[in-house]
Write a structure and sequence with these properties.
Elements (H helix, E strand, L loop, with lengths): L1 E6 L2 E4 L4 E9 L7 E6 L6 E6 L5 E3 L7 E6 L4 E6 L8 E7 L15 E2 L3 E6 L1
Parallel strand pairs: 2-11
Antiparallel strand pairs: 1-3, 3-8, 4-5, 4-9, 5-6, 7-8, 9-10, 9-11
């Protein structure tokens, strides 16, 4: 079992930045894929970014150039640096992990472990 706890969400103005953190505990030695997803009110959960244990990262197109995912394997943590935030980025951001690299990151059913989410609100 793997437990995930997110932190770092909050209220920020348009154009601002936030850094989200996710700490894993439990069977962390076997974790491969770790990523961030988000869900806005009335919308489906969507991929933000993912990273494998060997550092290969993938981003949703709308986040490229603004968001950066990074990972600390030694401490089983994953981070999301979010810059140039827009009101459309407002959502609950979830950390996810799996013991395998997801076949398709965009399919969130491919990750087994999920945090409870952290709310990001971007004011206009």
């Amino acid at each position: 079992q793997v437990q995930l706890v997110e932190s770092g969400g909050g209220l920020v103005q348009t154009g601002g930045s936030l850094r989200l953190s996710c700490a894993a505990s439990g069977n962390i030695a076997r974790i491969n894929g770790m990523g961030w997803y988000r869900q806005a009110p009335g919308k489906q959960r969507e991929l933000v970014a993912g990273v494998t244990s060997d550092g290969r990262a993938i981003y949703a197109n709308s986040m490229k150039g603004r968001f950066t995912i990074s990972r600390d394997n030694a401490n089983a943590a994953v981070f999301l640096q979010m810059n140039s935030l827009k009101p459309d980025d407002s959502a609950v951001y979830y950390c996810a992990a799996d013991l395998y690299e997801p076949t398709t990151w965009a399919d969130d059913s491919g990750l087994e472990y999920w945090g409870s989410g952290t709310l990001v609100t971007v004011s206009s």
